[in-house]
Design a protein that fits this description.
Elements lengths: L1 H36 L3 H18 L2 H17 L3 H15 L7 H16 L3 H8 L7 H13 L3 H16 L4 H17 L3 H18 L7 H14 L2 H17 L4 H17 L3 H15 L5 H18 L2 H146 L5 H30 L2 H10 L5 H11 L4 H8 L3 H14 L8 H6 L3
Length: 569
């Protein structure tokens, strides 16, 4: 049960929050509007400012835009155009952009465009109109009207014609009705009344074919009637404008259209000399809708009063309304001048701020560009320095390697010459050694015969024991082995190719003379014992010397030393 109560309370809070918020917003707007109607300026702004603070606290961007929209409206209604322009520009800069258009942003753009049009800055007006949504029918008309006021009639017609073509491809035919109406308005404003009637009738015919509620489109009939009025066809004008008045009265939203229609009907009544009827219409408008008049509408109605009473010959009434017209027109003209001055001053100040900001930004950009240029120049200098240094280094390296190559070539040539001389020396030595081998071999044969004879003679002596004879025999045999080994080495030395020594020295110039001799003994397949005997060293020393030689020849432990040396033979 507690869980059910908890979830019920949670959903109640979750869903009632937005509802309570909307109710609070409506209440604030209602109070603000109430005080506006009663001309309580401070109270009206108090509630609209409260609404803005509420929306800013919630952080809802749509709500914030709505609140600012209401305040801009209030400022305009209380004749504070400069403050309205300032707020509209701030709202535009903070929340509105071309990429994210919405109805609220369209209102901001339209307000800015209208204020620019008021001070006759039509180029700036067009800039803000271009930001409005393409589907907004007021966009094409306002832009075309700005072109017309600039004297660019062709551009005005092209703009509205393009919007008609655009609207034909849309499913929403209401937009097409407004497109035809806009084209008619532009033609009427430039004085082409017949073309204007054609497009107004197209809009009217489309309303009929789609069976739309005509109370929503009273202004179309009113526009047709106005054109006939301009052509002097009062009966046709009265017929269509009466339809506009009736339909607009049924639609509370289209109050302005109703006021325009009744004003135009009063003028027709005047032209028909139906003065009482005209006065009755004007009296009704002042009685029920004076607070809804704009200043221009009030002046028109006062002028109409004056014309009627002048025609009727009622000088008292004429003078009365003349004084009212003079007084109000003076105030209105003063208000218009003040409004324009305030708007121009605010726009100029804002423009100066923008220019100052732009200059500041450009100054910062220039500063950044100078910094970037300096960095790029530094990089370029560094690049050139590195390139120059690289070229110098490359040239030096190439020169070094060329010098080294030349040096090596010269060294090799020297080594080859030395090797050649050494080879010649070895060949001479080999010839000499061959002679020595022959002498040594002959001497060895003589000594072997002598030794054999000596041992036989010693064996015949009675006072020499057999062990002593054996020792003498072993000593003699050992001497003969040493001599035989040396003879064998010298013999093989003679057989060893002289190119072996030169090849070994060329490939391993760091070897000493004793290393070359030791390598020669190994290359002749001499055993460790034979090498040890010839060099008067132990077999272990021979092994150590062999390992040291392998290292000098850059051979691994597993490499065969004899195979490597035999390749050089």
């Amino acid at each position: 049960m507690r869980i059910i109560l908890f979830f019920s309370l949670f959903f109640l809070i979750a869903f009632s929050g937005p509802c309570l918020g909307q109710k609070y917003q409506k209440e604030l707007l209602k109070k603000s509007e109430y005080h506006r109607v009663n001309n309580n300026k401070d109270s009206s702004f108090y509630y609209v400012n409260k609404l803005i603070r509420y929306e800013l606290k919630n952080g809802n961007e749509i709500g914030i835009l709505d609140a600012y929209r209401h305040k801009i409206n209030k400022l305009l209604q209380f004749n504070k155009p400069a403050a309205a322009l300032s707020l509209a520009i701030k709202t535009y800069e903070a929340y509105c952009n071309k990429e994210n258009n919405c109805d609220r942003c369209d209102f901001i753009y339209r307000s800015l465009a209208e204020m620019m049009s008021t001070i006759k800055n039509y180029r700036e007006c067009i800039k803000y109109i271009d930001m409005m949504s393409e589907k907004n029918h007021l966009r094409s008309y306002n832009k075309a009207e700005a072109y017309r006021l600039l004297g660019l009639v062709d551009s005005a017609n092209i703009t509205t014609s393009a919007f008609i073509e655009f609207s034909k491809n849309l499913e929403n035919k209401k937009i097409l009705i407004n497109a035809y109406n806009n084209q008619g308005l532009i033609y009427r404003n430039i004085g082409n009344i017949d073309s204007a009637i054609i497009y107004f009738l197209k809009a009217d015919k489309l309303i009929d074919s789609l069976k739309f509620d005509r109370s929503d489109y009273g202004y179309v009939s009113g526009n047709i009637g106005n054109c006939y009025f301009l052509k002097g066809n009062l009966n046709k004008a009265y017929e269509f404008i009466s339809i506009d008045s009736k339909r607009s009265r049924l639609n509370e939203i289209d109050l302005i259209s109703y006021l325009n229609a009744e004003t135009k009907l009063a003028k027709i009544d005047f032209k028909r000399k139906e003065y009482d009827k005209a006065i009755s219409r004007i009296d009704n408008l002042f009685k029920n809708h004076e607070t809804d008049f704009g200043s221009s509408k009030k002046i028109i109605l006062l002028e109409l009063y004056m014309d009627i009473y002048k025609e009727m010959g009622n000088s008292l009434k004429y003078e009365y309304y003349l004084q009212q017209w003079i007084s109000f027109n003076k105030i209105n003209t003063s208000d218009i001048i003040q409004t324009n001055e305030e708007l121009i001053a605010e726009y100029t100040e804002n423009s100066l701020q923008q220019v100052t900001l732009q200059m500041k930004i450009e100054k910062e950009l220039l500063k950044q560009k100078l910094i970037i240029k300096e960095q790029e120049d530094s990089k370029t200098r560094l690049k050139y320095w590195l390139l120059t240094s690289g070229l110098l280094l490359l040239t030096s390296t190439m020169f070094f390697f060329f010098w080294r190559y030349r040096k090596k070539s010269q060294l090799k040539e020297t080594e080859l010459k030395l090797a050649k001389k050494e080879k010649e020396f070895i060949e001479l030595k080999m010839i000499e050694e061959s002679k020595n081998v022959q002498v040594l071999s002959h001497e060895l044969l003589v000594k072997q015969d002598f030794s054999a004879t000596l041992i036989k003679q010693l064996a015949k002596l009675d006072n020499v024991s057999k062990p002593q004879i054996k020792n003498i025999e072993l000593f003699i045999q050992n001497e003969l082995d040493v001599k035989a080994t040396r003879a064998k080495i010298q013999s093989k030395m003679g057989e060893l190719s002289g190119s072996f020594h030169s090849n070994l020295k060329i490939k391993h110039p760091e070897l000493s003379k004793s290393d070359v001799v030791f390598a020669s003994l190994i290359a002749m397949n001499m055993t460790n014992k034979e090498i040890a005997t010839s060099k008067s060293m132990s077999s272990d020393t021979v092994k150590t010397t062999k390992n040291r030689l392998k290292k000098k020849l850059n051979l691994a432990k597993n490499d065969n030393l004899i195979d490597y040396l035999n390749k050089l033979l």
